[in-house]
């Protein structure tokens, strides 16, 4: 999810108020790790496996009112003792409940619907619960679940849903459990016949009904998390096309419900069409588009950002980073979903990093570097907070979607993992293997760490302790001088948090003899010296020239007094041949550029 208004509000909020961290990995004596497992399940929830949602409701473009029924098909995994519990908001009025076609007693309170069975139910049984209901949302808030607003620029009123993380229950009864995806979902939307309704999957029918009504019947047969089910209703036009992707000549429907306005299409056509290039790019990098038997699409809504509803994103406009981010979620977030909201990095960190990849592969490395520079500036505005959401904040929407930590720092550490791997073929192979391993399911940050270690042969324990569960970043003071044919580099690391040392690989671009040589060394101590035998006169040195690291580097050449290691400082020596560094060519395809200006203004092209 990328909602610019929400992100700005959240970011400013965290400047003033910040809750303490409670990392999953707690450091003890800097070496011993204690695992603290989150508690997200209940016996009632674990006893049921959601198989299918059939949502059949009536809505319009003028209110948030919803009425109709939702049928939930469940498999009983362990014996039930007389009740079934679904999540259902108190804003909805329950008219009646059918259990396997028969009237069932029920109680609706505390945002839950309790359905009572007349007899115990053994495991292995299938149950169908149909709930007839109606209701609306009166108060507009950032996490209201269902919205109705006027897009004043285009004079269009829209009703749409955005349920992440806890608001699906606001408009349909469900089981809000990230680890229990429904195998399939039907969303039937009845509305005024002059309107269109977009949703998940394929539009299988448009049926005219009495009273100048029309029913749009959307069906998706892919597993889906509860919060990714959606609809949007407005005076839409269907602008659709097919795009090819992959090496097998496959094509995919790209279906866009845009405002029914000739100027809107004329203004946005080229931006919408960029979706094709992004689908091909991510299919190459991450593996084939996960929902290729159905579609990918967009519904335009005045949301201030976007939400990655499975197969049909809702979004404010077609700016490059917004389209890129939400499309990437179809892999990271939808195909593989975070197993807990504490591990929202699985969704947002990788989708945010995909913005960088979009710039790198489709526009230019310069634009990608500018994006990462901006991300680092935002992260460094404060020193506290971990990417992993602490246990005591796991129910806080503002903390889960912290723009600085979840999005920008989350992307920065994916970038640093890529640098640690130091092999793009292997890096993207790991991403594809991770997605294949957890396809149509859920995963945690530690699941990714385990595969990362298995595929790379490296130990990432320190990395995750420092960057994922830990706080802050390193600050490195550098001194360098050449003596005869040896370049000496002193590095003294301090940190902005309680982490005593970030063990980081540092690239140095050394200019000597008119050529550039890049040397990579690892700082495993706070105070270290490297002695590099290098021919020619060194005329320049730059740390982290390609902007891999979330770190600050300071050069203190004037204060260098001695060429000998100081107290507590170790010297490492090695030889380097001067190698001319190849220039990274810019591959400019689209002239469009977009930058977020930190910290209080977000500029969209």
Structure description:
- With 605 residues, the chain is of the alpha+beta class.
- It has three domains: 2-39 and 337-468, Neutral Protease, domain 2; 43-336, Immunoglobulin-like, CATH 2.60.40; 479-575, Immunoglobulin-like.
- Helix content is 23%, strand content 36%.
- The protein is built from eleven helices and 35 strands.
- It has an eight-stranded mixed sheet. A six-stranded mixed sheet has the order 1-22-23-21-20-19. Strands 32-26-27-30-33 form a five-stranded mixed sheet, with no helix packed on it.
- Helix 9 packs across helix 10.
- The radius of gyration is 27 Å and the shape is elongated.
- Residues 9-40, 558-565 and 577-605 have low confidence and may be disordered.
Q: Which second-level CATH architecture of the largest domain applies?
A: Sandwich
Taking the sheet with the most strands, its summary is:
8 strands, mixed
Task: Report the CATH topology name of the largest domain.
Answer: Immunoglobulin-like
> What share of the residues lie within helices?
10-25%
Shape designation: elongated
What is the average per-residue confidence, as pLDDT, rounded to a whole number? 87
Structural class: alpha+beta
Radius of gyration: 27 Å
N-end to C-end Cα span: 19 Å
CATH superfamily of the largest domain: tricorn interacting facor f3 domain
User: How is the largest sheet built, in terms of strand order?
Assistant: 8-7-11-5-4-14-17-16
Number of domains: 3
Top CATH class of the largest domain: Mainly Beta
Count up the helices. Answer: 11
According to DSSP, the number of beta strands is 35
Low-confidence segments, given as residue ranges, are 9-40, 558-565, 577-605
Percent range for β-strand residues: 35-45%
């Amino acid at each position: 999810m990328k909602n610019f208004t929400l992100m700005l509000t959240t970011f400013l909020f965290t400047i003033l108020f910040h809750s303490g961290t409670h990392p999953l990995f707690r450091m003890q004596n800097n070496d011993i790790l204690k695992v603290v497992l989150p508690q997200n399940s209940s016996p009632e929830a674990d006893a049921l496996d959601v198989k299918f949602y059939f949502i059949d409701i009536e809505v319009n473009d003028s209110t948030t009112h919803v009425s109709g029924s939702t049928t939930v098909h469940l498999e009983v995994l362990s014996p039930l003792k007389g009740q079934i519990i679904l999540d259902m908001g108190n804003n909805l009025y329950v008219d009646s409940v059918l259990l396997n076609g028969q009237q069932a007693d029920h109680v609706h309170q505390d945002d839950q619907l309790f359905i009572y069975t007349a007899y115990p139910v053994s495991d292995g049984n299938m149950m169908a619960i149909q709930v007839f209901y109606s209701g609306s949302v009166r108060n507009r808030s950032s996490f209201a679940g269902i919205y109705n607003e006027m897009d004043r620029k285009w004079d269009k009123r829209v009703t749409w849903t955005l349920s992440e993380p806890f608001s699906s229950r606001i408009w349909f009864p469900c089981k809000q459990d990230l680890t229990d995806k429904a195998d399939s979902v039907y969303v039937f939307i009845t509305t005024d016949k002059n309107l269109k309704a977009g949703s998940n999957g394929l539009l299988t029918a448009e049926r005219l009904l009495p009273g100048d009504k029309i029913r749009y019947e959307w069906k998706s047969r892919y597993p889906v998390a509860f919060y990714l089910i959606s609809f949007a209703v407005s005076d839409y036009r269907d602008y659709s096309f097919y795009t090819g992707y992959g090496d097998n000549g496959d094509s995919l429907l790209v279906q866009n419900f845009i405002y029914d306005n000739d100027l809107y299409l004329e203004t946005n056509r080229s931006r919408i069409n960029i979706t094709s290039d992004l689908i091909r790019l991510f299919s190459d990098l991450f593996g084939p588009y996960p929902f290729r038997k159905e579609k990918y699409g967009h519904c335009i809504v005045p949301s201030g950002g976007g939400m990655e509803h499975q197969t049909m994103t809702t979004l404010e406009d077609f700016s490059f980073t917004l389209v890129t981010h939400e499309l990437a979620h179809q892999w990271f977030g939808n195909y593989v979903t975070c197993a807990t909201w504490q591990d929202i990095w699985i969704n947002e960190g990788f989708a945010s990093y995909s913005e960088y990849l979009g710039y790198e592969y489709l526009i230019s490395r310069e634009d990608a570097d500018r994006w990462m520079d901006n991300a680092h500036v935002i992260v460094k505005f404060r020193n506290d907070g971990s990417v992993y959401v602490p246990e005591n904040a796991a129910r806080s929407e503002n903390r889960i979607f912290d723009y600085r930590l979840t999005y920008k720092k989350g992307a920065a550490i994916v970038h640093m993992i890529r640098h640690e791997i130091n092999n793009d073929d292997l890096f993207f192979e790991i991403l594809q293997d991770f997605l294949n391993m957890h396809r149509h399911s859920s995963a945690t940050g530690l699941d990714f760490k385990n595969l990362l270690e298995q595929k790379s042969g490296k130990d990432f324990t320190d990395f995750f302790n420092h960057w994922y569960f830990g706080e802050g970043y390193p600050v490195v003071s550098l001194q360098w001088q050449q003596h005869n044919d040896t370049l000496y580099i002193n590095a003294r690391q301090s940190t902005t948090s309680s982490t005593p040392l970030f063990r980081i690989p540092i690239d140095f671009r050394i200019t000597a003899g008119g050529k550039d040589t890049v040397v990579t060394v690892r700082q495993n101590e706070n105070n270290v010296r490297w002695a590099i035998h290098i021919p020619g006169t060194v005329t320049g040195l730059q740390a982290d020239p390609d902007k891999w690291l979330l770190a600050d580097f300071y050069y203190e050449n004037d204060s260098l007094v001695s060429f000998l290691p100081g107290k507590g400082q170790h010297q490492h020596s090695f030889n380097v041949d001067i190698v001319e560094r190849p220039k990274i060519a810019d591959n400019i395809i689209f002239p469009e550029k977009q930058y977020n200006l930190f910290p209080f203004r977000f500029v969209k092209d």
